[in-house]
Amino acid sequence: MEWIKIAAATIAALLLGIGDTYAQQHYKGVSALEVNYGTNIFGDADNYFNLSYSRYINRKSYWKIGANYFEKTYDYSVTLTEGEIPLTREAKGKDIYVDGSYHYTLASNLKSVYWGLSIGAFTGVEHTRHPDEEYQFIIGPKIGTEMEIFILPRMALLAGIQQYWNPLSFHEWNTVWNIGIKALLY
Fold first, then answer.
1. Predicted model pTM
2. Which top CATH class is 22-185?
3. Which residues contact 174 (CB under 8 A, 6 or more apart)?
4. Binning pLDDT at 50, 70 and 90, where does residue 37 land?
5. Is the separation of the CB atoms in 22 and 153 below 8 Å?
6. 97 CB contacts (<8 Å, ≥6 apart)?
7. Could you read off the pLDDT of 64-111 as tens digits, one per residue?
8. CA–CA distance from 77 to each of 43, 86, 123, 131, 139 (Å)?
């Protein structure tokens, strides 16, 4: 029973930043690699994956570029024979795109917890297969918020929400939550 108390205290210390999590977080020139998974907040819980590289400009801001994959559920109609009522079917569109964003830290304890806002843009392609196979160019702006909680000197847990506006897509507005891991590269 004693080991449970020790494990709980250790985890609490890591999450609260009491441990040795000072390292070189948010210093000029430090770069990081991160991987994220999330889903659409509104509508169907479609999958979102991201692999990003970031580079810190100073203690309060950094640039991030990434490769992304996002599924979007949509309905389409199928008429089997003439005169029948069309059937509604569901399919998933797939967005594959690159994005770039600028992140600015609004609040921090300067050792393990950082929260900020981001603004950026994305471009790529959207693939749908029904009723006909089609590829559509996509481009648009995005805004978001992200929290980093450093659990080790070079590793952070991430949680974020992003809003995408894509005027060329069949779903123009998409709000995505994500969680992930960031590893500092130095």
1. 0.79
2. mainly beta
3. 40, 70, 72, 163, 164, 166
4. very high
5. yes
6. 67, 68, 70, 122, 123, 124, 125, 138
7. 999 999 998 887 777 777 777 777 778 888 999 999 999 999 999 988
8. 19, 6, 28, 8, 27
